[in-house]
Structure formats: structure tokens, C-alpha cells
Amino acid sequence: MSSKNLIQIKQFCLYHEIENTFITELHNYGLIEIIVFEEDEYFQPEQLPAVEKMIRLHYDLKINLEGLDVIANLLNKIETLQQNLTTTQNKLRLYEQHQID
């Protein structure tokens, strides 16, 4: 395993001027996955938008970790519902086209 494509938590926290413990707490709530490699902690680049969103919610809007957990779960549910709606709309379009033909 290589840390080449991973984001080092220590550097990320320095850049964003936040405590490392905030990222650890996000992990403890199951909101992100932390990877330990050669005694350093990292997270996947795919998690970056979610982590930055949680930073803004927590530090700018003063939302606590429990609130972040609820918001993340609700956003995931909304995304799932949107995907289901899109799938249903596509199936309906196919059905309507089949009826016309």
C-alpha cells in the first residue's frame, strides 16, 4: 500500500487550521474512514468534499458532531431517494415510449 494517493490528516489539519481530534471524532462517528500507514493517518481523496463540508458546518455554523452525524445521514438518504427517482423516471420514459410505438 502506498500513501501516494492518500491525504495525510496531519497536513490537512495544518492547512485548514483545525485540530487533528476533529478528524478523529468524524471517524469515531463513522463519518469518514481513516487509514493508518507507517504510523501516519490518512483518508481517501474521495472523502475530501464531505470532510470539507463537515468542517464548514462545524466551525462556521457551530454544528456539533451529533448534528453532523444526523446531517450526513439525511444527505445520504436524499441522495439515495434522488437516484431512485431518476431510475423510476427513466423506466417510466421507456414504458411511455413503448406504449407510443
Topology order in helix (H) and strand (E) letters = EHHEEHH
Question: Level of helix content?
Answer: 55-70%
Query: What general form does the structure show?
Result: elongated
- End-to-end distance: 54 Å
SS content category: mainly alpha
Beta strand count: 3
Q: How many helices? A: 4
What does the radius of gyration come to? 19 Å
Q: Could you tell me the mean pLDDT?
A: 94
Side by side, the strands of the main sheet go 1-3-2
Low confidence ranges? none
Strand fraction: 5-15%
Sheet bearing the most strands, described? 3 strands, antiparallel
The gist of it:
With 101 residues, this protein is mainly alpha-helical. Helices cover 65% and strands 9% of the residues. The longest helix has 36 residues, at 65-100.
Which descriptors apply to this entry?
mainly alpha; 4 helices; elongated; 9% strand; 101 residues
Question: Would you spell out the secondary-structure blueprint of this structure?
Answer:
Elements: E1 7-8, H1 9-16, H2 20-28, E2 35-37, E3 40-43, H3 48-60, H4 65-100
Antiparallel strand pairs: 1-3, 2-3
